[in-house]
Amino acid sequence: MLSQLLPMLAITFTVFMLFFIFMGIGYMVSKKPLRGSCGGVVKLMGNEKCSYCGDDPNKCDSLIAEQQENALKAAQLGKSV
């Protein structure tokens, strides 16, 4: 039984590590953090209003733009965020 379990665990661990490596490479290339959809799962469960963005899909983008603008202002002042 152990001889069957070890190769399966090794393959599973390798697949998970590859996913993490590819997610890291994707983050370094795009410089955007991973984020979920606005209310995707919530709407499936029956709740119509997204508690994070208030059903405004542009709000997520505007929050990211605002954070980038604040980081740029802080960098101009010589401070880190």
Automatic annotation (TrEMBL):
Pfam families: NqrM. The chain crosses the membrane at residues 6-29. It comes from the Bacteria. Keywords: Membrane, Transmembrane, Transmembrane helix. PANTHER family: (NA+)-NQR MATURATION NQRM. This is (Na+)-NQR maturation NqrM. It comes from Psychrobacter glacincola. The gene is nqrM.
